[in-house]
Structures are given as structure tokens and as C-alpha cells.
Amino acid sequence: MFNKDPKKINSNDSGIDFSKSEKISEYFKNYNTQLYSEITPGPVVGEELILFVDTKRLKNLIELQQEKLLIEIEKNTKIKLKNLNIQIHNNQQ
Length: 93
What we know:
Elements lengths: L17 H13 L3 H4 L2 E6 L2 E6 L2 H9 L1 H12 L5 E6 L5
């Protein structure tokens, strides 16, 4: 039988952790390097951080340094991530 009562939707079921996203954004803002100033951190979905970049060249560079970047983020923010999802801004595609 179907339940006719409405089911309450939990707004946090999407898997996006905004507290982690804010912490990582602050880290990128406070860390003064040319590379970090060109990266826009997005949300943390599960154990994956979404990063937005302006150019294909920068995307390739970050993919090459992905492990180093993950270690730096974990060391400075205490947030353990498994993967980076690097995307180019929509206006640059």
C-alpha cells in the first residue's frame, strides 16, 4: 500500500556540505598564490570538491597537481577529500 501522508524532504540529502565548501573557500582566499587566485572553489559533494577555472591550460595544470592540492587542502583545513572535479566556467567553453 502507498502512504498517503506527505513525506518531509530533508534539505541536506543532496550530499552537498556547505560548511566544508565555506572552509575551503576561505583557505583559497587567504592563500596568496597566483594559481589559487585563478581557481574558484565550488561545493563539496560527498568527498569530491568541484573547482571552476577559466582556461583549459589551467585545468590541465591542476589535473597534473591534483594529489598535491588535495594534500594541501587536507593539511590546512582538516577536510579529507578523495577527488577534484575540475570544470571550465560556462562563459569560457
